[in-house]
Design brief:
The complex is a heterodimer of chains A (about 325) and B (about 425). By secondary structure, chain A is α+β, with helices and mostly antiparallel strands. Chain A is built from 9 helices and 4 strands. Chain B has 3 domains: about 1-30 and about 235-430, Multidrug efflux transporter AcrB transmembrane domain (Multidrug efflux transporter AcrB transmembrane fold, Up-down Bundle), CATH 1.20.1640; about 30-105, Alpha-Beta Plaits, CATH 3.30.70.3400; about 110-225, 2-Layer Sandwich (Gyrase A, domain 2). The chains are: A alpha+beta (about 325), B alpha+beta (about 425).
Chain lengths: ~325, ~425
């Protein structure tokens, strides 16, 4: 294949030389995540690393839309009335406030109030009606627009399935890479994946602690997409290293090859992430309220994934090659 | 070159066919976009039915279907999920109270005879006569003008009823509906002819709605076992319409900005990538309609993400082609080798995405499945569009000559022949079309 003259190409960044710096950045990103995960695992009764939403614990979320202004007092009153009526630990939130209308639909919901309670699964639907009446007594012109209700046993089942999906996806990717590349590449890819997954999970843990974010089944999707994207990036870099190695291994040191390969793929890595970020930012600012958290997690995950494939993976590979020689 | 022109027209034909499919085939939109309710029911074993067998599920599904149809709300779906669950989808409703009242009732009608009296409480014993022996139920009024449920037994039921009433002359007979005593009239004489009625004796008369409900339930058939609602999702039509509008808007803005970026950065190839992106979107949507993929909010997110990956293939190829041009190759060979060298990266990275999608699809629930499916279709089509559409257009636009205007690729005159020297095997030279 190609035999680019490495010395003619000017490197923009030296990944190998500033190795401690890149690892330090990774550490700065990941340490708060690890602390948040550890904190939640110790303080939560179910020892989950993130706050589990109703998809996993069971519960009911009701959303009401209203064209009227909703104040913080209204939300607090709804919560108080719910407690008075015997609902246990209800949460009321304003999840969409004065939404910009994408078109002229008159009845498009402007403000959305979300009420979360334990699972209201009575077959008559009377309890849900009770909540609707409470919300209606505080915010007059409100209508139930969305119901999500999951029984506790189903929630636990979903949790098991999601964790299985996550582990299997990890395994599948690693098996594929060790089949296409060498096993040390696969191992480093696995570490890079762990780096990115840890970041996304940690991000949700931090948001859970400070902003009461609960994860739903889209969370696993966000983690897996970020992982998929990061593998994408890592493979492109590794593919280049593999290609350069084939012809230049005798002429240059592995450090030089890794540096050159990262720089050769740099424009692509950044451009690809940019275009994906553009589409995600469009979704974040103009898309619906329900997928906002999911999209934000992916935006940050993709930035970190790009970082890890350029800096984390190649630094580990350089380190691995040096030790292999020694 | 002749092959390239034929391929070009094939691509045009596929695009036109896709547009036709999109135009003529209605989209299948998920409940979160059109509005509607989805309930998941789980069968609960009872003392009569200790194990949930496929037969039990069949009759449960049949009874639930009958009930849902009695609601008269259009295209409903009742589907088995796993071995003890049913998924019920009802479009265009948000308030599921009525539907749930209907689904939750087991509608067990039982006729019972008096047993011993323990501490003042009357014990009631089963007689074997149940709702299964009914031919039909209807609403009517009694002589005193109260709403009652008129029952008509089938042949076997009529015989059982006659036997029972003969045995109970002078005693009360209790009618239970869903385990609740409705009335316990005193039997004065044997009743032949297989007709009976339920009046709301116990609570001082029925409302019309109560009678109507019981009649509908009795006619739809009793549930063989009880069914609990374990999941409920409903979305109002206005929220759904809002989500569609927002997703469309976000998608269009996203695609437009990506195209602008590509054209700004890669110039003429960027324009080609933008055309390929349009072809890509059209083909993906046509496939969504052919399969058909039910589009949900998460599914749309998957599609928008796949746009990012489709562009990635183009970026990889253009970066590689630029490198090849920098070595001073002719356009034809630079494009060929650029594609060839980018291909391993594209293939490996897309395969890993497809593996992820496959696992998500097999293990995920509804939302996650939709996301995985649209992303996987998107990634597969993106390989086709990058390798066929982009490459073909590149060849047709740039032809075989030398690169006379590097600016077309966003390169500077001074870049050419500076960065690399290319060395390759004879086999590769033949493949890329390098002429010595």
């Amino acid at each position: 294949m190609a035999n680019p003259d490495l010395m003619k190409h000017k490197n923009i960044i030296d990944v190998v030389k500033y190795r401690p710096l890149w690892l330090l950045i990774s550490a700065i990103l990941l340490i708060p995540c690890i602390i948040a995960i550890g904190y939640l695992m110790m303080t939560q009764p179910n020892h989950a690393p993130v706050k589990l939403g109703i998809d996993y614990t069971g519960g009911t979320i009701l959303q009401y839309s209203t064209p009227d202004e909703v104040s913080i007092d209204d939300i607090e009153n709804i919560r108080k009335n719910l407690v008075k009526e015997g609902f246990q630990t209800p949460i009321a939130q304003l999840i969409q406030n004065n939404s910009i209308q994408a078109d002229n639909t008159k009845d498009a919901p402007k403000n959305i109030i979300s009420v979360k309670t334990s699972f209201l699964g009575d077959t008559k639907g009377a309890e849900i009606e009770k909540v609707t009446n409470i919300v209606g007594s505080v915010v007059k012109d409100s209508a139930l627009v969305q119901t999500n209700s999951i029984g506790p046993s189903l929630g636990f089942e979903l949790l098991k399935n999601s964790l299985a999906a996550l582990c299997l996806a990890f395994l599948g990717i690693v098996v594929y890479i060790s089949f296409r590349f060498q096993s040390d590449y696969a191992f480093i890819t696995l570490l890079t994946l762990a780096h990115d997954a840890l970041f996304v999970i940690g991000f949700f843990a931090i948001m859970g602690i400070f902003f009461d974010w609960y994860i739903d089944s889209l969370f696993i999707t966000a983690v897996l997409t970020v992982i998929g994207f990061s593998v994408h990036d890592t493979i492109v870099v590794f593919d280049r290293i593999r290609e350069n190695n084939r012809f230049l291994a005798k002429k240059y040191t592995s450090d030089e090859i890794i540096n050159a390969s990262v720089n050769q793929t740099l424009a692509r890595s950044i451009n690809t992430s940019l275009t994906t970020l553009i589409t995600l930012l469009a979704l974040y600012f103009f898309g619906g309220a329900t997928t906002k958290e999911f999209v934000l997690a992916m935006i940050l995950g993709i930035i970190v994934g790009t970082y890890s494939s350029i800096f984390f993976a190649s630094v580990l590979l350089a380190w691995d090659k040096e030790h292999a020689k020694a | 070159m002749k092959n390239k022109i034929i391929l070009f027209w094939i691509i045009v034909a596929i695009t036109i066919a896709s547009i036709a499919v999109i135009h003529f085939k209605p989209a299948s939109l998920g409940l979160d976009l059109v509005g509607g309710a989805r309930l998941v029911l789980e069968a609960v074993p009872s003392s009569d039915v200790k194990k949930i067998t496929p037969d039990v599920m069949d009759s449960l599904q049949y009874a639930i279907e009958n009930r849902i149809n009695a609601l008269g709300v259009g295209e409903t779906v009742v589907q088995k999920v796993g071995d003890k669950r049913l998924m019920v989808e009802i479009p265009n409703i948000t308030d599921t109270k009525k539907a749930k009242e209907f689904l939750g009732e087991t509608a067990q009608l039982e006729f019972k005879e008096p047993g011993k009296t323990i501490d003042g409480y009357q014990e009631w014993l089963p007689t074997g006569l149940t709702g299964k022996d009914l031919k039909k139920a209807s609403a009517s009024t009694s002589a005193t003008g109260e709403w009652i449920v008129s029952l008509e037994f089938n042949a076997e039921g009529a015989k059982k009823f006659a036997d029972l009433t003969r045995r109970l002359v002078g005693k009360p007979m209790a009618i239970f509906f869903n385990g609740k005593l409705q009335s316990a009239p005193r039997i004065n004489e044997e009743i032949v002819g297989g007709r009976a009625q339920i009046s709301g004796g116990a609570d001082g008369g029925f409302e019309y709605s109560e009678v109507k409900n019981m009649v509908d339930l009795l006619n739809a058939g009793a549930l063989p076992v009880g069914a609990n609602i374990i999941e409920e999702n409903s979305v109002g039509p206005s929220l759904g319409a809002d989500s569609i509008q927002k997703s469309k808007f976000a998608g269009l803005i996203g695609i437009s900005l990506v195209m602008l970026f590509m054209i700004f950065y890669y110039r003429v190839p960027g324009v080609i990538a933008s055309i390929a992106l349009c072809v890509y979107s059209v083909i993906v949507f046509a496939i969504f309609k052919i399969i058909p993929v039910t589009l949900t909010l998460a599914g749309i997110a998957g599609f928008i993400l796949s746009i990012g990956m489709a562009v990635d293939a183009n970026i990889l190829i253009f970066e590689r082609t630029k490198e090849e041009l920098k070595t001073g190759r002719s356009l034809f060979t630079a494009i060929n080798s650029g594609f060839d060298r980018a291909f391993t990266s594209i293939f490996d990275s897309n395969m890993s995405t497809i593996i992820t999608c496959l696992i998500l699809y097999l293990l995920g629930t509804g939302t996650v499945k939709g996301f995985a499916l649209t992303l996987a279709i998107g990634v597969l089509v993106s390989m086709f569009s990058a390798i066929t559409v982009t490459k073909n257009l590149m060849h047709l636009v740039f032809g075989t000559g030398e690169l006379k205007h590097p600016a077309l690729f966003g390169l500077k005159e001074s870049d050419i022949n500076k960065s690399y020297t290319a060395v390759e095997t004879r086999k590769e030279k033949a493949k890329f079309g390098v002429l010595n």
